[in-house]
């Protein structure tokens, strides 16, 4: 089973918002979609879900075009956080709508999750706080039992407890590998430890498709204090500067080899220790136009 | 009932029940007030003799088909299409797994079915209240010819008015502008009657009253069918990024402009003096352009102001 996005493009008022977007997505994957504000993440979702009519391209589930066989759309779940119809409804009314669209909607689990997160069925959606709405959106997504779940900035503006709740629920859900998540964010820290694959949307296009496990296998983040103030050639050539504080350098080496390790140790640094590598470090290292050492001049 | 019908019913039932309740109440009150105020010394018959003829009956005290019913069709057409856009229910419908064509026609026929029930109930209330509350000494005699023609004609007008607002709400993305546009177009449509009568009765040919009526019915039905079928075509191509703009389909801007200018100038040409025609033409050309292209004009004006203030 796979959801495939092929060559999807959308122009609004003469401006290209997304262009030639293609990727595959299988159940069991948690894909992070990363891009700066206005990069086109939400437009991509809206176009995938037929809210916006695509200029070109297709979205297929198991080879079946969603546009030609709309019933396949029930395998994909998406709530537009900005434009949705939920505002006028009470939480107890929402399953009445969703069970008519998603044939496997789990009403009992919906009620149980509302109780678990202390959400009242009688509450109107619009009267909920931002965090509570995000939880309700996720509860609807999970109880829809759709195979592919799209979450648009689910952590935006939420406190740490709600974030953890959402992340835990997503990870629990993926365990059986029957569902897949596509989660957008402009904050890399939010996806750290959650996504196993990250798509980078840049200048309207999908510029990178990272398998994080593979990237992490080869990359290292090091904290160094060198004897000299001069930056050695091995660092200039192979590393990306993340932070500098006095003589302390924090660098990321995306393709760490034994040879690099040997050269670094030959410099006899005062300090050489490995730090935990975050998603943000990886992206800084992979996306920086230069190595960062220019800043030190 | 399949799930799509259930879904649309759940979504629209409050609007439809409101329309039902309002219709019965308004018709009951209006008919009751009109009838109970009549005096047998002034009026002998509630319904005039023309009810015997095969034409639509509209009298001083009684219409065989209430105008309130026509208004309700107009209002429901507008509400059903506009509310789904404004409340973002279209987003849910478009991802519901049902084709847009099916969503469109299910919504249309559900509304029409319910409105037909409302019409029957409204007519029953109107005729019932008239019969029950009519003061003694005043006659209430109906004839099938006038009644049937009125019901058929009334329904055709209702369907057309529903189609006008339904279509307008499909292409206009701003509620206030939609109300103005739909009301303006509906009111102006009464001006097409003299045009129609001139077209069917002139020095080249002459249609009888019966033929004029039947042709009118056929034309109304055709206009309704065109608007509804065209609406279905557009609904399948509706892309929600223009929600909140005057026109949801930017490609319709030029056709709407041409229709606006031609329609109002055409109305003036048949019903007015040459000076009225000229004024109408100039007004529609200028106003239509300013209205339809106002975001672009506003942007240019903003840029001009910025340049001007930068120079200062």
- Beta-strand residue fraction of chain A: 25-35%
Distance between the termini of chain A: 52 Å
Indicate the multimeric state.
heterodimer
Q: Regions of chain A with pLDDT < 50 over 5+ consecutive residues?
A: none
Specify the biggest β-sheet of chain A.
6 strands, mixed
Give the overall shape of chain A.
elongated
Report the average pLDDT across residues of chain A.
88
Protein name (chain A): ATP-binding cassette domain-containing protein
Domain ABC transporter (chain A): 3-228
Pfam families (chain A): ABC_tran
Keywords (chain A): ATP-binding, Nucleotide-binding
Question: Which secondary structure elements does this structure contain, and how are they paired or packed?
Answer:
The complex is a heterodimer of chains A (297) and B (312).
Chain A: E1 3-12, E2 15-25, E3 30-34, H1 41-48, E4 56-61, E5 64-65, E6 76-78, H2 94-101, H3 107-116, H4 130-144, E7 148-152, H5 160-174, E8 180-185, H6 188-191, E9 197-202, E10 205-211, H7 212-218, E11 220-225, H8 233-238, E12 239-245, E13 248-253, H9 258-266, E14 271-275, H10 279-287
Parallel strand pairs in A: 3-8, 3-9, 6-7, 7-8
Antiparallel strand pairs in A: 1-2, 1-4, 4-5, 9-10, 11-13, 11-14, 12-13
Helix pairs in contact in A: 3-4, 4-5
Chain B: H1 3-36, H2 67-86, H3 89-94, H4 100-133, H5 144-171, H6 175-189, H7 192-200, H8 209-235, H9 253-271, H10 274-292, H11 294-311
Transmembrane segments (chain B): 16-35, 62-81, 108-130, 142-169, 176-197, 213-235, 247-266, 272-292
Keywords (chain B): Membrane, Transmembrane, Transmembrane helix
Protein name (chain B): ABC-2 transporter permease
Features:
heterodimer, A: 297 residues, alpha/beta, Alpha-Beta Plaits, 2 domains, 6-stranded mixed beta sheet, 29% strand, B: 312 residues, mainly alpha
Explained architecture:
The complex is a heterodimer of chains A (297) and B (312). By secondary structure, chain A is an alpha/beta fold. Chain A folds into 2 domains: 211 residues, Rossmann fold (3-Layer(aba) Sandwich), CATH 3.40.50; 78 residues, Alpha-Beta Plaits. Helix content of chain A is 31%, strand content 29%. Chain A has a 6-stranded mixed β-sheet with strand order 6-7-8-3-9-10, sandwiched between helices. Chain A has a 4-stranded antiparallel β-sheet with strand order 2-1-4-5, covered by helices on one side. In chain A, strands 12-13-11-14 form a 4-stranded antiparallel β-sheet. In chain A, helix 5 links the parallel strand 7 and strand 8. In chain A, helix 3 packs antiparallel against helix 4 and helix 4 packs parallel to helix 5. The relative contact order of chain A is 0.14. The mean pLDDT of chain A is 88. By secondary structure, chain B is mostly helical. Chain B folds into 2 domains: 228 residues; 62 residues, no CATH class. In chain B, helix 1 packs antiparallel against helix 2, helix 1 packs parallel to helix 4 and helix 2 runs antiparallel to helix 4. The longest helix of chain B is centred in the N-terminal third of the chain and has 34 residues. At the A-B interface, helix 2 of A face helix 1 and helix 3 of B.
């Amino acid at each position: 089973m796979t959801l495939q996005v092929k060559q999807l493009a959308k122009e609004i008022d003469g401006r290209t918002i997304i262009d030639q977007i293609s990727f595959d997505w299988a159940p069991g994957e948690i894909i992070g979609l990363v891009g700066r504000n206005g990069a086109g993440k939400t437009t991509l979702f809206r176009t995938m879900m037929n809210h916006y009519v695509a200029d070109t391209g297709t979205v297929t589930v198991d080879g079946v075009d969603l546009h030609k066989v709309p019933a396949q759309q029930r395998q994909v779940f998406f709530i537009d956080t900005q434009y949705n119809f939920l505002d006028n409804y009470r939480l107890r009314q929402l399953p009445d709508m969703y069970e008519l669209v998603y044939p496997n909607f789990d009403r009992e689990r919906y009620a149980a999750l509302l109780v678990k997160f202390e959400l009242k069925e009688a509450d109107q959606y619009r009267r909920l706080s931002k965090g509570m709405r995000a939880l309700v959106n996720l509860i609807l997504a999970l109880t829809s039992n759709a195979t592919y779940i799209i979450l648009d900035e689910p952590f935006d503006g939420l406190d740490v407890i709600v974030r953890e709740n959402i992340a835990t629920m997503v990870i629990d859900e993926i365990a059986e590998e029957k569902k897949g998540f596509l989660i957008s964010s402009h904050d890399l820290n939010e996806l750290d430890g959650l996504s196993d694959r990250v798509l980078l949307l840049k200048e309207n296009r999908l510029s990178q498709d990272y398998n994080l496990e593979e990237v992490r296998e080869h990359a290292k983040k090091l904290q160094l204090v060198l004897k000299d103030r001069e930056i050695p050639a091995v660092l200039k050539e192979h590393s990306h500067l993340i932070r500098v504080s006095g003589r302390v350098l924090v660098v990321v080496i995306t393709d760490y080899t034994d040879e690099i390790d040997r050269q670094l140790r030959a410099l006899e640094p005062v300090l050489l220790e490995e730090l935990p590598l975050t998603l943000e470090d990886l992206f800084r290292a992979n996306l920086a136009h230069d190595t960062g050492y220019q800043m030190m001049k | 009932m399949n799930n799509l019908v259930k879904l649309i019913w759940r979504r629209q039932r409050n609007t439809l029940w409101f329309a039902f309740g309002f219709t019965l109440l308004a018709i009951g009150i209006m008919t009751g007030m009109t009838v109970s105020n009549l005096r047998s010394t002034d009026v002998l018959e509630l319904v005039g003799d023309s009810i015997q003829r095969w034409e639509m009956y509209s009298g001083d005290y009684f219409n065989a088909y209430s105008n309130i019913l026509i208004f309700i069709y107009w209002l429901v057409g507008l509400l059903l299409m506009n509310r789904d856009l404004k409340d973002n229910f279209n987003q849910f419908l478009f991802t519901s797994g049902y084709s847009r064509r099916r969503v469109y026609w299910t919504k249309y026929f559900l509304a029409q079915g319910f409105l037909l029930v409302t019409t029957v109930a409204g007519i029953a209330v109107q005729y019932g209240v008239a019969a029950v509350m009519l003061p003694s000494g005043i006659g209430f005699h109906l004839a099938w010819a006038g009644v049937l023609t009125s019901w058929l004609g009334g329904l055709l007008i209702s369907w057309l008015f529903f189609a006008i607002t339904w279509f307008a709400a499909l292409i206009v993305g701003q509620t206030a502008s939609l109300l103005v546009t739909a009301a303006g177009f509906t009111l102006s449509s009464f001006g097409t009657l003299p045009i129609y009568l001139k077209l069917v009765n002139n020095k080249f040919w002459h249609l009888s009253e019966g033929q004029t009526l039947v042709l009118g019915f056929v034309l109304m039905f055709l206009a309704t069918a065109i608007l509804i079928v065209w609406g279905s075509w557009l609904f399948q191509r509706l892309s929600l990024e223009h929600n909140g703009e005057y026109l949801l389909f930017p490609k319709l801007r030029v056709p709407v402009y041409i229709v606006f200018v031609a329609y109002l100038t055409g109305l003036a040409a048949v019903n007015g003096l040459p000076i009225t025609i000229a004024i109408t033409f100039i007004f529609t050309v200028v106003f239509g352009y300013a209205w339809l292209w106002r975001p672009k004009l506003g942007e240019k004006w903003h840029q001009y102001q910025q340049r001007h203030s930068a120079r200062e």
